[in-house]
Amino acid sequence: MIGKLDEHISYIKNFKSKDIDEIESLKIQFLGRKGIINDLFSEFKNVPSDQKKEYGQKINELKNLAQIKYDELKSVNSTSTKSISEDLTKPGFPISKGTLHPITIIKNQIIEIFSKVGFELSEGPEIEDDWHNFTALNLPKHHPARDMQDTFFIQQDPDILLRTHTSSVQVRYLENNTPPLKILSPGRVYRNEAISSRSHCIFHQVEGIYVDENVSFADLKQMILYFTKSMFGKSKLRFRPSFFPFTEPSAEVDIYWGLETETDYRITKGTGWLEIMGCGMVDPQVLENCNIDSEKYTGYAFGLGIERIAMLIYQIPDIRLFFENDVRFLNQFKS
Ligand code: PHE
What we know:
It contains 14 helices and 9 strands. By secondary structure, the chain is an alpha+beta fold. The chain folds into 2 domains: 2-85; 102-333, BirA Bifunctional Protein, domain 2 (2-Layer Sandwich), CATH 3.30.930.10. The strands form 2 sheets. Strands 1-4-5-9-8-7-6 form a 7-stranded mixed sheet, with helices on both faces. Strands 2-3 form a two-stranded antiparallel ribbon. The chain is elongated. The two termini are 66 Å apart. The site of phenylalanine has 11 residues, from strand 8 and strand 9.
């Protein structure tokens, strides 16, 4: 009889489990009303009297051990008694994860594509001064080209404004660094324009600039080709002569989108071609304004609107959807 008690004692001592069900059934098996320990107590009367003392001590030892073991395992795998009575195999409540805004998704993709070829990120203030947004970029006061980007001014001060493009960040970077430099500046920009399905007074741009010795228009074309291939899987491009005060020569880039679907017809106005960005060789005067030797260095720059790219990729018909923060719209971009 004592031998059996020793077996129980060593069973309890060696018992290990993380399973709350197993831990609970250990308790019922030993300490329950109809459990082993109560049985052993009721056998006490049949124990030969010379063994009674040892038997009694061992049952008490077993009882204490079982209780200690149970408490210990329970606290390590602490689940409240309440939840144990519930069905632990039931699925949990679904936790809804947020989604990235489509503008953020596209912005991250653009950044990833350009960082693979050595562009570094540079960011700057949204409230800018006239010098960084306009004058340094070859747009002196009263120059008619300023009308290309209608401006919000801060209070009555004509010198402080909301930046109309992230080219201002490039000026800041050029002023404080020496070539070779290769940066990408994503960010929010502001233009005093009427809001419609295709234009908004707040939008997002990514602009890039590369300045080094012997940078040529061929380098620019190659970089844009690399971008359109990576972003859209399309490589038929058209460089249309254009004008920006800060680049010379300047171009707008169209990609051949195709005319396979009805949407293709609509967004390309039946031509198959789509304008996606502006670009050009940095005007030497801009380099000089930033104290960079324009005899020694040349550079290219490009700029694109993130909303426009997102509208193309996701086939979104109205730019206003990006700013309304309607979760029914945003939830569609779960990746
Ligand atoms: N800054 C121009 C814009 O906002 C885009 C651009 C950038 C064009 C660089 C050419 C070169 O429209």
